[in-house]
Amino acid sequence: MARVRRILVIDDEESSRQLLSDLLTGEGYQVVTVGTGEDGWKQLQAQRFDLAVVDRALPGMDGIQLLKQMCEARMKVPTLMVSAFGEEKLWAEAIGWGASDYLLKPFASDQVLKAVKKLLQT
Question: What count of Cα atoms within 13 Å lies in the side-chain half-sphere of residue 96?
Fold first, then answer.
């Protein structure tokens, strides 16, 4: 029997967390959601995840700061960065700090599932 893949969703918007949780749970993934970068960091240190979906703009520790901490701690968790801001400079910074891919909000369900499946294959 295949192991259930675990995904951490870090987004300060409750509606985004719920949407992603419902979508990914419906596809058979085990999902943990948190609303801050600090809580996401705690979860990453405490548990094993196969993928993290991280909002770029979080209060306190933002998505880029979280990526930096993950990089410095040598965490090898594929990360899908999401953001409502489509500035190329922001995406380049995210990729430079280890984001595996990115999506611009608002996104369609099929875009999320395609990105998640691609990242879980690596």
Answer: 8
- Residue ranges covered by each domain of the chain: 6-121
Domain 6-121 is of which CATH architecture? 3-Layer(aba) Sandwich (3.40)
Provide the whole-model pTM.
0.94
Residues 72-112: pLDDT tens digits? 999 999 999 999 877 777 888 898 999 999 999 889 999 99
